[in-house]
Amino acid sequence: MENFIYSISTRVYFGRDTLHHLEHEIPRYASRILFVYGGGSIKRLGMYEEITAILKTHHIAYEELPGVQPNPRLASVKEGIRLCRDHDLRFLLAVGGGSVIDCAKAIAAGVPYKDDPWDFFTGKTQVQHPLPVGTVLTVAGTGSEMNGNAVITNTDTAQKLAVRSDLLRPQFSILDPSLTFTVPREQTAAGIVDIYSHILEQYFSPTPNTYVQDRISEALLRTCLKYGPIALREPTNYNARAQLMWTSSLALNSLLTYGKITDWATHAIEHKVSAVTDVTHGVGLAILTPAWMEYVSAEDPAGRFVDYAQRVWGIEGRKRVAIVKKGIEKTKAFFASLGMPTRLKDVGVQENQLQDMAHSIVGTGEIGKFRRLNETDVYSILKNAY
Amino acid sequence: MENFIYSISTRVYFGRDTLHHLEHEIPRYASRILFVYGGGSIKRLGMYEEITAILKTHHIAYEELPGVQPNPRLASVKEGIRLCRDHDLRFLLAVGGGSVIDCAKAIAAGVPYKDDPWDFFTGKTQVQHPLPVGTVLTVAGTGSEMNGNAVITNTDTAQKLAVRSDLLRPQFSILDPSLTFTVPREQTAAGIVDIYSHILEQYFSPTPNTYVQDRISEALLRTCLKYGPIALREPTNYNARAQLMWTSSLALNSLLTYGKITDWATHAIEHKVSAVTDVTHGVGLAILTPAWMEYVSAEDPAGRFVDYAQRVWGIEGRKRVAIVKKGIEKTKAFFASLGMPTRLKDVGVQENQLQDMAHSIVGTGEIGKFRRLNETDVYSILKNAY
Asked: Closest Cα partner for A191 from A143, A253, A119, A131?
């Protein structure tokens, strides 16, 4: 086990009818805020009226940044920064899924920073004194509601990059599973894959002696397997939505990472795929995860893939190779059962793009920690997934 | 799943050589502190010198409250409060196990409170504006290093009562597993039982649809089963000590409780046993847990005891009654393998005390939530454990 510093500071209000906590939370931080949201779904749900009524009743002045897209754009971030500066807004309320929350975090980081906010993503500068952020989550998947991560797409450079800072953890997040009842089937499914992938990226680690972390990871994976299909069949099943929503937060709030070096190669590859095609993140992960598994499992001396197959899927048998193969097949079948495409060619990638993509993903070094991957490795994975 | 508010605010510095974090943490809160510790072990370990050197170098003035006992006494709490008031101390540094930390929390609550600090424990008043607390943990078990609980013994009334408040969560805790290498065998074993029992008290719940919480609980239980015996055999095995220490914190930092109603009947009974006999908490729990299980498992329509036997102990079979019985037998055998006594008569309880104890434990109501227990039930459990 590696040394670590545990610090998960976000307060979470979890459960039905928890929106009213905005009343006492927001005034702790500011009286002038930016209200960030995505498409029209929060208006259809009646949440827009509910939230603006709360803001008005409590004399909280607000400007709006609507229309934040999936794979949120740097342009939205810049627009939000401008609004905060022009109107002296001191707090960001993000209402939506991970894209909206990520966009709000990037704005929060950018307001006090004089230069281009893309600098946070290229590593040119670090986050300092961001504005505080609060969230109301309406889609389970990214885990952004409890962590300090934000992923932003720069369409000028065709890059999708992440920033990470404990300072960007939301001050509070409101998680009402019933707000996810109306999430469309495809988006629910993509969220489940995203959760599952986040757990795997941390499960596959070169760090030895992480028993408790690994058993917790398996607990979370099995929760996805149990409740994912239920949520798709019965979108208004509160328990399924609640189990997935809480699992989603635990999957990426750092709990699984503490004490471990983690992999994240599949995410690095996927970010390129969705920067090139604008495919939903979870869809890209569903295609790439089994391809990564097939490529990497060949060399797995510690038997992490055996663990995975046995403990998550209950696969029995004596031959390691067969056990591992079955675990990967089960994973593929699970993603397919959620309605996910299985090939890169099905989501708009052209075969002649693969080499450039591999080059761009790896840059001058390597990606991944469970297994280091160079450009040739990444090209093979992309080819396998094509 | 029940609604819940997640708020685990303690920063944890986990790993080898983390003591130096005191240097930047304490000055965030105060320049005059009370240094609370227990017996001479921190002097034998050289920690006393190391810590006081840090305090001196960083110009942090301190008074000492040494000699805090296991099952810490109200008298120590009052002495600590007096020292803080007399010397205008504004922060508590607790170095030791749960008893030392609990004592420091009670002092922290009591300093700004005009009346008897026992009032927090009887429920006469609530914690408000406590002094901040930081800890250096030297024994794994109670989980006090990340939670807002404190248990104090009042020898005048032969009561051992708890106070709970998020305000009493330590600001920071330093968890260096190597500091537990020299914990004596008996105390290590009692700590393991304590951790195991904390998990069970939350695992056995009347709340349905808590799949992810339950699978995480089983992950933690299995970590105790795996690493408890290793830590006893090889006291300086860093990985075993690290897994137990982190499991101990996760077991009682609220993670397992969120979304659930939890039981705590066994703890209520044990607190009386150790108030009467001064037996170590974990020893009392080792005796009482199987007795509680045997009494309560007879009525378990939801099959939680079947889950427990199958998922924690891997017991197979088709007959529910036999599966449950085996699970309880395995639990008993595990505690016995740690060197725990198995009968109340072995730890100084007299048979003619049982009726009065049952009466005093239950008071005018009932205890437990998984199964409500009245005085007759508790008497039966005590008799079974005698």
From this structure: A143
* Pair B36, B68: CB distance under 8 Å: yes
Beta strands B159-164 and B149-154, pairing class: antiparallel
The ipTM is 0.96
Average of per-residue pLDDT values in chain A: 96
Mean pLDDT of A320-327: 95
- CA of B201 vs chain A CAs: smallest distance (Å): 18
Rounded to whole angstroms, the Cα distance separating A87 from A131 reads: 14
Decide if A152 contacts A102 (C-beta within 8 A). yes
Nearest-angstrom CA–CA distance, A231 and A264: 27
pLDDT given at position B40: 75
A:B CB pairs within 8 Å: 109
pLDDT for residue B294: 96
Q: Per-residue pLDDT tens for B169-216? A: 999 999 999 999 999 999 999 999 999 999 999 999 999 999 999 999
Nearest residue on chain A to B15, judged by CA atoms? A3
Task: Tell me the C-alpha distance between A294 and B16, whole Å.
Answer: 36
Q: Which residues does chain A have within 8 Å of residue B218's beta carbon, measured at their own beta carbons?
A: 215, 219
pLDDT band per the 50, 70, 90 thresholds, residue A146: very high
**Is the pLDDT score of B302 beyond 80?**
no
pLDDT at position B363 is: 85
Q: Are B31 and B61 in contact (CB under 8 A)?
A: yes
CA B158 → CA A11, B76, B272, B274, distances in Å?
38, 15, 8, 9
- Residues of B in CB contact (< 8 Å) with A are 1-16, 18, 208-209, 211-212, 215-216, 218-220, 222-223, 226-227, 239, 242-243, 246-247, 250, 255, 258-259
Give me B65's structure tokens. Answer: 């409250």
- Judge contact between B227 and B173, C-beta under 8 A: no
Answer for the pair A378, A269: CB distance below 8 angstroms, yes or no: yes
Which residues are CB-neighbours of A374 under 8 A, at least 6 positions away?
A362, A366
Q: Which domains does chain A have, with CATH numbers?
A: 11-179 (3.40.50.1970), 185-385 (1.20.1090.10)
Cross-chain Cβ contact A219/B216 below 8 Å: yes
Cβ atoms of A198 and A146 within 8 Å: the answer is: no
DSSP H stretches of helix in B204-303: 211-233, 238-251, 265-277, 281-296
- For A1-65, the DSSP string reads ---EEE----EEEESTT-GGGHHHHGGGT-SEEEEEE-STHHHHTTHHHHHHHHHHHTT-EEEEE
Q: What is the pLDDT of residues A218-266, one digit of tens each?
A: 999 999 999 999 999 999 999 999 999 999 999 999 999 999 999 999 9
